[in-house]
């Protein structure tokens, strides 16, 4: 392949010097790793890019030819990035020695807006990419995958590299890093936890004035990319509320914000299936405990709202300690609510219509199963909400940390999700944020509280359809199945549940749902028996 290139373009040269991925590539590496070469004059293809004369090549022999900018070699299949599976929901990617999972919609958006324009020799729609999401969702890994997939040199920026106690030195360091990225074109500047650099000018007051000057250096670099039509991309990741990021950077033509949410149960099950084949330590764990157990474990972790990093840490502990530990406290500040297999019949359709009417208007309501239930219905109501919102193709977030409520509300807004509040303390800390948020808020804790007087109360039963009105006693079988499905308790769809006198009204149903949430049962009948014993 190298010989073909020499004959076509540089027949008078004994060797061709290439700079690829920020370093010189020799002919042996070409033959070993590259499946196809196409030399294109006047265009910049970015599979593996040949750049102009570099200082380290100045001593090259007179018999060596350098491929200059404007004449580029495209290399097929040289990237370390491999797509293992892709469907409408999940894209599984192998990068180096590890396997990642991301939402397919997010991957396709990045392909259309960044990768395809770059591969065609153009520039992205925006010179900047901003990934937003809770910790541990793989944002930084995605930036590295993006760089390798298009053959960019990586220039990583951290606060430690840039920030200095001396006036003006931080700005000089940042400017030098950006200039270096332009010299190493094509390149991607990766900035993790970017809030230290992209903070809004509203916060640049007093001793924080240095932030504004840093902001100016960054915006100057972004504008230079667009103005000079350079193959440089600035990609950043953050965990914070987007309102903290300066609006001038979030606008079109600079940084395009993309959301990286926690994985769903389906995504994690697909991920573990591939990881057990390609990641040695996960393959070892699967060999010891069985892949089915790992699938069940990661699915339950997803229902709890755990991030990829939390799931991975729990799996490593399982391998080291020989037994799994349940994931109950995600660090993201919220957990996701999602029904793996929604139950759809007349009863759930009636509830769904009630919930949907509230969600459509981003309403704020206190939810009760019936009028006479004043407390203790959180477990039942969460299950019913999970079923309804999943049928409506929505997710919901339950805040787990009252200190991170604003981040939860921001994520709900970005995901188009609802928020389920099960503690009044969450509203007490940020009443304006919660009650005026542009997202639906369902309050399922029914303990009396001063804020309750200002909010509407919605009773799910009696539930009215165009043809009939159902009382809660008419719906017990369905409601028990919904709670059982949500809390992972087995039911046989072909057989009616033997509720008997133990579950005869709303109060008993609420207690049964609490039991299924708090205790693990092999099936519903065991839970009903436990309810009878407790009575």
CATH topology of the largest domain: Rossmann fold
Count of the separate structural domains: 4
DSSP helical segment count: 21
Strand order of the largest sheet: 14-16-17-18-15-19
Query: What would you call the shape?
Result: globular
Which percent bin holds the helix content?
Answer: 40-55%
> Radius of gyration over alpha carbons?
28 Å
Features:
alpha/beta; 6-stranded mixed sheet; 5-stranded parallel sheet; Rossmann fold; disordered N terminus; 535 residues; 21 strands
Topology summary:
Blueprint: H1 2-8, E1 15-20, E2 23-25, H2 27-33, E3 37-41, E4 64-66, E5 71-75, E6 81-86, E7 90-95, E8 98-103, H3 104-119, E9 128-132, H4 139-149, E10 153-157, H5 159-162, H6 169-183, E11 187-191, H7 195-198, H8 209-228, E12 232-238, H9 247-250, E13 255-259, H10 265-278, H11 280-289, H12 291-303, H13 308-321, E14 334-337, H14 346-360, E15 364-368, H15 378-391, E16 396-399, H16 405-415, E17 418-421, H17 424-429, H18 431-435, E18 441-443, E19 457-459, E20 463-464, E21 469-470, H19 476-486, H20 506-518, H21 524-534
Parallel strand pairs: 1-4, 9-12, 9-13, 10-11, 11-12, 15-18, 15-19, 16-17, 17-18
Antiparallel strand pairs: 1-2, 3-5, 6-7, 7-8, 14-16, 20-21
């Amino acid at each position: 392949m190298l010989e073909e290139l020499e004959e076509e373009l540089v027949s008078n040269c004994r060797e061709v010097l290439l700079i690829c991925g920020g370093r010189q590539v020799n002919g042996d590496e070409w033959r070993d790793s590259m499946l196809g070469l196409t030399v294109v004059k006047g265009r910049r293809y970015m599979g593996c890019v040949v750049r102009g004369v570099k200082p380290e090549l100045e001593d090259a022999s007179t018999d060596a030819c350098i491929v200059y900018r404007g004449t580029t070699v495209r290399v097929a299949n040289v990237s370390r990035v491999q797509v293992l599976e892709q469907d409408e929901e999940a894209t599984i990617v192998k990068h180096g020695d590890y396997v990642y999972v991301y939402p397919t919609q997010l991957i396709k958006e990045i392909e259309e807006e960044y990768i395809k324009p770059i591969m065609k020799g153009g520039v992205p729609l925006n010179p900047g990419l901003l990934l937003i999401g809770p910790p541990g969702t793989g944002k930084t890994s995605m930036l590295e995958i993006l760089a390798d997939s298009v053959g960019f040199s990586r220039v990583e920026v951290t606060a430690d590299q840039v920030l200095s106690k001396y006036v003006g030195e931080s700005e000089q360091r940042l400017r030098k890093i950006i200039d270096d990225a332009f010299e190493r074109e094509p390149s991607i500047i990766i900035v993790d936890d970017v809030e230290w650099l992209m903070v809004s000018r509203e916060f640049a007051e007093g001793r924080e004035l240095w932030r504004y000057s840093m902001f100016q250096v960054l915006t100057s670099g972004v504008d230079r990319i667009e103005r000079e039509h350079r193959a440089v991309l600035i990609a950043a990741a953050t965990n914070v509320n987007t309102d903290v990021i300066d609006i001038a950077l979030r606008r079109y033509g600079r940084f395009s914000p993309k959301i990286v949410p926690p994985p769903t149960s389906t995504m994690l099950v697909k991920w573990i299936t591939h990881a057990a084949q390609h990641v040695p330590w996960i393959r070892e764990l699967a060999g010891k405990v069985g892949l089915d157990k790992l699938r069940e474990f990661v699915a339950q972790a997803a229902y709890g709202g755990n991030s990829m990093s939390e799931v991975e840490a729990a799996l490593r502990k399982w391998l080291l300690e020989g037994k799994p530990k349940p994931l109950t406290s995600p660090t993201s500040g919220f957990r996701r609510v999602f029904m793996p297999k929604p139950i759809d019949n007349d009863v759930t359709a009636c509830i769904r219509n009630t919930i949907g009417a509230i969600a459509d208007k981003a309403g704020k309501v206190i939810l009760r199963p019936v009028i006479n239930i004043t407390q203790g219905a959180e477990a039942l109501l969460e299950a019913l909400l999970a079923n309804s919102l999943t049928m409506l193709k929505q997710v919901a977030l339950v805040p787990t940390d009252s200190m991170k409520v604003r981040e939860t509300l921001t994520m709900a807004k970005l995901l188009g999700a609802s928020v389920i509040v099960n503690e009044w303390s969450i509203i007490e800390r940020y009443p304006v944020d919660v009650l005026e948020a542009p997202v639906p808020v369902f309050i399922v804790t029914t303990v009396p509280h001063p804020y309750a007087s200002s909010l509407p109360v919605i009773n799910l039963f009696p539930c009215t359809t165009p043809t009939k009105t159902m009382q809660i006693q008419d719906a017990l079988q369905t409601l028990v199945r919904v709670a059982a499905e949500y809390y992972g308790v087995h039911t046989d769809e072909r057989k009616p549940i033997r509720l008997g006198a133990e579950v005869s009204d709303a109060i008993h149903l609420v207690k049964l749902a609490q039991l299924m949430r708090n205790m693990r049962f092999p099936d519903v009948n065991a839970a009903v028996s436990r309810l009878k014993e407790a009575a």
